[in-house]
């Protein structure tokens, strides 16, 4: 008689925030491994959990431990390295076990969803002629069905056979019962190889011919790949320099070595051309399938994609930040495109940064990580300066195309000249007309949605704010509503000021809708389309618009940050930036960096074909450093000035920031618990940690919750998080007070 003596450590998907020990039945001894999903008892319930360790020392006597009930899947769903990554996520970001599991494992996999199968049917051709004659005489419908199947060369899908012949289930079941037909189940493959979001239509099938700089970059990455050790490369190339070609060449090198590849992009839906080129290149790779991992996958596709990656059927995954947890076998190369993008940071717990997790996963698996950008983040740039990362440079555009010429328009002078508010300057209007007359295309970029930015009373200065959030509402002319872009609340715009009853309440600022209207008055016959999140309700509309733009059906795109990310249109020769300095005037130490990155990235959309490009930047602060550095195309110089400023104030990347937010519908209660936390932490660690606050968040009220935060500056996040979690455990937080940790936050609001 076998003994069930093996003890496993299990993370539960039940809100229970510590691992529990269970005994493993002897029948599961061989199949159950770290990374296996299991069903276990918890009180009177049955819950699903993940084995994170096998052969553990039990906390109690062996006989007090409950038995694992069964395996959800016959093979592990996570690799040992991913288990280590999950443990690091929990410790570094201060996240719960449940949050970590929900982040790393897709819903259908966590829920134990089974692979879909279809029934296939074929004729039993060993049936004797007498039985067939008898069948034809007594059951002609069944005989007709049998004859059809007997004429087929292979088994047919049951549902198609029944619908095509109009046969009844009774006739089918009769044949099956008599043994005239044979039924079998086959697994349905729903892996999203044929992803709709990849712009394959425009993906080049030609062999890539690298220039001298690209070849040098590929050689550098190849050396690291051959060394078989952890190394991080910054692929630092100007916009339009051909970074994607370098990625593809490096990926092919890894695949030839029998390795798999993880490719992260900021947002799959916003990078259809990059995704299309990668997918078309690797979907047909003779020994590697490519999975595109995105939010539009059905549960079945998500399950099958995960399993295809876990069993090695798929060896390339392209996706946004959550793809960093894909269970790839024999990982050899990790690529993070546009590594500077804030979209890689997750808003919900665990508030991880996809780039940082990618680098740490590469370290755990001892593989090569490539970070690509024309405007590297200061965190990455400092790691290069410290010698932690290698740098590979692309200093010129493909085919020696020139970078676009940037014109700076001082909107203060423009308004003095016209003596009224100006949305589109005379220079930008003239260049828009010029491009349209030549049959060339233009892009106008603005950093906000809606028609006017705010509703402001000219008499008393009142601004219409959301009643649920301490933020101004935005006027949308298309449906004549005020909308809060934070919580979604809508209201009718007031005819009179609610404060002073004046009728002088007006919309101020220029949203995308307003710019669209102004441009239509400048180019009444042009085809103009607006792209922002308000127009993206229809599935894949963004891709359809980009397709029409490439085909020349659209003359001008007006959009928000959605059009700043990695788009490549050869016929675009003009980019206009309205209110280019808007992101400068926010209380955030990253404001200069964000503004500079935006200017360089957006201007990089111009002149990517044979025609030269121009950029017109409208600003009220033309001499601001980020604008002047961007005008001259001096990325290194900007980074040096900005990193010197950060060092002076000891802001990231010189120290880590951790933000703790307390929120409640009761402002006094939220502030009380924030103060209690600060006092207890100070008593515990003394002056070892620099702490600021608690103070109200810059957006003090959000979705009817009042918010206060404490900022911590540290060189050692792990040590700080241990102290924070210890203090958290000492304080009995009521249910109506929520507190969260945000490590390395990208926003200070």
Automatic annotation (TrEMBL):
<dbReference type="GO" id="GO:0016787">
    <property type="term" value="F:hydrolase activity"/>
</dbReference>
<dbReference type="GO" id="GO:0006269">
    <property type="term" value="P:DNA replication, synthesis of primer"/>
</dbReference>
<dbReference type="GO" id="GO:0003677">
    <property type="term" value="F:DNA binding"/>
</dbReference>
<dbReference type="InterPro" id="IPR011545">
    <property type="entry name" value="DEAD/DEAH_box_helicase_dom"/>
</dbReference>
<dbReference type="InterPro" id="IPR027417">
    <property type="entry name" value="P-loop_NTPase"/>
</dbReference>
<dbReference type="Pfam" id="PF00271">
    <property type="entry name" value="Helicase_C"/>
</dbReference>
<feature type="binding site">
    <location>
        <position position="466"/>
    </location>
    <ligand>
        <name>Zn(2+) 2</name>
    </ligand>
</feature>
<keyword id="KW-0235">DNA replication</keyword>
<keyword id="KW-0862">Zinc</keyword>
<keyword id="KW-0479">Metal-binding</keyword>
<dbReference type="InterPro" id="IPR041236">
    <property type="entry name" value="PriA_C"/>
</dbReference>
<comment type="subunit">
    <text>Component of the replication restart primosome.</text>
</comment>
<feature type="binding site">
    <location>
        <position position="469"/>
    </location>
    <ligand>
        <name>Zn(2+) 2</name>
    </ligand>
</feature>
<dbReference type="GO" id="GO:0005524">
    <property type="term" value="F:ATP binding"/>
</dbReference>
<feature type="binding site">
    <location>
        <position position="487"/>
    </location>
    <ligand>
        <name>Zn(2+) 2</name>
    </ligand>
</feature>
<feature type="binding site">
    <location>
        <position position="484"/>
    </location>
    <ligand>
        <name>Zn(2+) 2</name>
    </ligand>
</feature>
<keyword id="KW-0378">Hydrolase</keyword>
<keyword id="KW-0547">Nucleotide-binding</keyword>
<dbReference type="InterPro" id="IPR014001">
    <property type="entry name" value="Helicase_ATP-bd"/>
</dbReference>
<comment type="function">
    <text>Initiates the restart of stalled replication forks, which reloads the replicative helicase on sites other than the origin of replication. Recognizes and binds to abandoned replication forks and remodels them to uncover a helicase loading site. Promotes assembly of the primosome at these replication forks.</text>
</comment>
<dbReference type="InterPro" id="IPR005259">
    <property type="entry name" value="PriA"/>
</dbReference>
<feature type="binding site">
    <location>
        <position position="497"/>
    </location>
    <ligand>
        <name>Zn(2+) 1</name>
    </ligand>
</feature>
<comment type="similarity">
    <text>Belongs to the helicase family. PriA subfamily.</text>
</comment>
<feature type="binding site">
    <location>
        <position position="457"/>
    </location>
    <ligand>
        <name>Zn(2+) 1</name>
    </ligand>
</feature>
<keyword id="KW-0067">ATP-binding</keyword>
<dbReference type="Pfam" id="PF18074">
    <property type="entry name" value="PriA_C"/>
</dbReference>
<dbReference type="InterPro" id="IPR001650">
    <property type="entry name" value="Helicase_C-like"/>
</dbReference>
<feature type="binding site">
    <location>
        <position position="500"/>
    </location>
    <ligand>
        <name>Zn(2+) 1</name>
    </ligand>
</feature>
<dbReference type="InterPro" id="IPR042115">
    <property type="entry name" value="PriA_3primeBD_sf"/>
</dbReference>
<dbReference type="GO" id="GO:0008270">
    <property type="term" value="F:zinc ion binding"/>
</dbReference>
<dbReference type="InterPro" id="IPR041222">
    <property type="entry name" value="PriA_3primeBD"/>
</dbReference>
<dbReference type="GO" id="GO:0006302">
    <property type="term" value="P:double-strand break repair"/>
</dbReference>
<feature type="domain" description="Helicase ATP-binding">
    <location>
        <begin position="224"/>
        <end position="394"/>
    </location>
</feature>
<keyword id="KW-0639">Primosome</keyword>
<dbReference type="InterPro" id="IPR040498">
    <property type="entry name" value="PriA_CRR"/>
</dbReference>
<feature type="domain" description="Helicase C-terminal">
    <location>
        <begin position="492"/>
        <end position="657"/>
    </location>
</feature>
<dbReference type="GO" id="GO:0006270">
    <property type="term" value="P:DNA replication initiation"/>
</dbReference>
<feature type="binding site">
    <location>
        <position position="460"/>
    </location>
    <ligand>
        <name>Zn(2+) 1</name>
    </ligand>
</feature>
<dbReference type="Pfam" id="PF17764">
    <property type="entry name" value="PriA_3primeBD"/>
</dbReference>
<dbReference type="GO" id="GO:0043138">
    <property type="term" value="F:3'-5' DNA helicase activity"/>
</dbReference>
<dbReference type="Pfam" id="PF18319">
    <property type="entry name" value="Zn_ribbon_PriA"/>
</dbReference>
<keyword id="KW-0413">Isomerase</keyword>
